[in-house]
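Hey L., structure's done. Input below.
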Amino acid sequence: MKKEFWLERWERSEIGFHQGEVNPYLQKHWHALHAAQGGEVFVPLCGKSLDMVWLRERGHIVLGVELSAIAVRDFFKENSLTPAHSNGAKFERCEAEGIRILCGDFFDLSKEDMAQVRAVYDRASLVALPPEMRDRYARHLVDILPAGSQVLLVTFDYPQEEMPGPPFAVSEAEVRALYAQYAEIRLLEQADILEREPRFKARGVTRMQENIFLLTLK
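Output:
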């Protein structure tokens, strides 16, 4: 999947993946992470997610990465924040009131960028990637994060042949295949969500689960 796909989605405001409220699994399960107040939380492929505001309100410093400048602009505008801007070799940095978003490619992130991160919230990143990109994503994430970092991961699981992604189906077995050698994996919750997701049911999906995992890097 090319960068242009996501850039065009934002340009055309085709952002059905954006949630207009804070994710309930984040609110329910964040306590399972040992994320110290004041610690830095990384949100990959963050879009303009309100989850970043929720995390900041819990006392965390928030670091997001997002490809689309439109998403970054809209996040700060819609939350009445005026960011400071600076440019680096790989990213434009936008920051206001403890929330910093790097506008650029996730795969350009380095260990130095993640040096202060101790927790990760991934609701819309892994499931946004097709199968051929997910191993590269997981390996890069693990490579740049400090040892002992924890990840709250939310995935969808449904018969992939019934609907083209994104969001893509990522089974529990695949999560374990991607991360087992790097992390301890704990399944926190499985929820059947098809009845409350009519947009997917209308597209012919017959079964849909959300799985919530806690990963603790070794």
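The radius of gyration is 17 Å. The first strand starts at residue 40 and ends at 43.

-- N.
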